[in-house]
């Protein structure tokens, strides 16, 4: 019991010395060690810590199966020479859609059949698209 | 599909949605604990007969009720960050499908191997079969092979739409003149429904999305049928 008391009293003395030393660090240029350095460590270290989360998308692959092999080997399908990428699809979209030329499509009235009306509008748009293509050519 | 009067999330059909459900349960637990604590504190304070006239400040308790919420926020933020990066793009999509929103239907293009294009209109009430979902069924579904990472490119031809499938944890705005990318993966065979999620006109509620996840042989047969019909 007396040994336990001795150890705890030494520990509390050490703790009070460290606390006193920590308090003296707040004066003058040593404020950098108490405030500045922890902040820099947190900011820089935080980005290293975040790397642990951001690498998840590369580490985690839920399924290892490759369907393109199945399609190519079993069914004889061949991928196009020019692969489908975000960039070339975007170029296609830019050509197809003219965002400055937009017409307001009238919706079906309550007494009109929605699908028939939409089919009519789709036919009209198709005609206009063909006319635009022929006039463009 | 959601059942009538359903309150909770739909069953997950993709790994990402499973993680979202876990995260939702985790955060819901934290919120319920906090709410119960607050209600208990309110009850105790209201029903207490004691008054302390000389209460001016409480430095210790103020420190405690600042530090503990900060810790709670960290406990919520860490899984949230993990999920955020998990929903980011996969780096090896095996199939690319382009979905274009129109007023008021979706059109899809499969152009990796052959050019398969079709429109997907909502089935009107008169064309539904017994057991079909009202306002959710379409004439041509998006058929995908199961267990495959698919890249969904979403855009629109007129106004802004949004392509959504809650069971797969997917939602992306379809903006005219812009191409948005989604990583899609169905981990089980089935039919998954969604609806347009951005107001786009009179029939905004009547342009649903249906995904059918099938084995690769069925997908191949479907592609052949679509090519023959074209």
From TrEMBL, chain B:
The keyword Transmembrane applies. Keywords: Copper, Electron transport, Magnesium, Membrane, Metal-binding, Mitochondrion, Mitochondrion inner membrane, Respiratory chain, Translocase, Transmembrane, Transmembrane helix, Transport. Residues 92-225 form the Cytochrome oxidase subunit II copper A binding domain. Gene3D superfamilies: 1.10.287.90, Cupredoxins - blue copper proteins. The keyword Lipid metabolism does not apply. PROSITE patterns: COX2 (PS00078), COX2_CUA (PS50857), COX2_TM (PS50999). It catalyses: 4 Fe(II)-[cytochrome c] + O2 + 8 H(+)(in) = 4 Fe(III)-[cytochrome c] + 2 H2O + 4 H(+)(out). One of its GO terms (cellular component) is mitochondrial inner membrane. One of its GO terms (biological process) is ATP synthesis coupled electron transport. InterPro entries: CcO_II (IPR045187), CcO_II-like_C (IPR002429), CcO_II_C (IPR034210), Copper_CuA (IPR001505), Cupredoxin (IPR008972), Cyt_c_oxidase_su2 (IPR014222), Cyt_c_oxidase_su2_TM_dom (IPR011759), Cyt_c_oxidase_su2_TM_sf (IPR036257). Component of the cytochrome c oxidase (complex IV, CIV), a multisubunit enzyme composed of a catalytic core of 3 subunits and several supernumerary subunits. The complex exists as a monomer or a dimer and forms supercomplexes (SCs) in the inner mitochondrial membrane with ubiquinol-cytochrome c oxidoreductase (cytochrome b-c1 complex, complex III, CIII). NCBIfam families: CoxB. This is Cytochrome c oxidase subunit 2. It comes from Branchiostoma lanceolatum (Common lancelet).
């Amino acid at each position: 019991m007396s040994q336990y008391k001795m150890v705890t009293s030494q520990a509390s003395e050490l703790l009070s010395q460290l606390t006193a030393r920590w308090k003296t660090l707040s004066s003058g240029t040593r404020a950098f060690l108490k405030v500045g350095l922890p902040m820099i460590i947190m900011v820089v270290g935080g980005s290293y810590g975040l790397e642990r989360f951001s690498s998840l998308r590369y580490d985690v692959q839920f399924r290892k199966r490759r369907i393109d092999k199945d399609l190519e080997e079993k069914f004889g399908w061949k991928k196009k020479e020019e692969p489908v990428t975000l960039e070339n699809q975007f170029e296609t979209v830019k050509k197809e859609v003219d965002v400055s030329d937009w017409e307001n499509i009238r919706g079906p009235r309550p007494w009109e059949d929605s699908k028939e009306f939409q089919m009519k509008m789709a036919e009209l748009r198709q005609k206009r698209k063909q006319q635009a293509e022929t006039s463009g050519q | 599909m959601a059942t009538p009067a359903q309150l909770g999330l739909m069953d997950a059909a993709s790994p990402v949605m499973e993680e979202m459900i876990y995260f939702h349960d985790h955060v819901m637990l934290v919120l319920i604990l906090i709410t119960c604590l607050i209600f208990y504190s309110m009850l105790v304070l209201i029903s207490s007969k004691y008054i302390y006239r000389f209460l001016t400040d409480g430095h210790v308790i103020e420190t405690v009720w600042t530090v503990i919420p900060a810790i709670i926020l960290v406990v919520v933020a860490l899984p949230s960050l993990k999920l955020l990066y998990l929903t980011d793009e996969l780096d090896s999509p095996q199939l690319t499908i382009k979905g274009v929103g129109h007023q008021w239907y979706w059109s899809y293009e499969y152009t990796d191997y052959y050019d398969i294009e079709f429109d997907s209109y909502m089935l009107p009430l008169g064309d539904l079969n017994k057991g079909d979902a009202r306002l959710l069924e379409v004439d041509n579904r998006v058929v995908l092979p199961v267990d495959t990472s698919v890249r969904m490119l979403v855009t629109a031809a007129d106004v802004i739409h949004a392509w959504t499938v809650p069971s797969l944890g997917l939602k992306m705005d379809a903006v005219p003149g812009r191409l948005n990318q989604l990583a899609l993966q169905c981990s089980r065979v089935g039919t998954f429904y969604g609806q347009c999620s951005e107001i786009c006109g009179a029939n905004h509620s009547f342009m649903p999305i249906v995904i059918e996840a099938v084995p690769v042989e069925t997908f191949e047969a479907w592609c052949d049928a679509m090519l023959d019909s074209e």
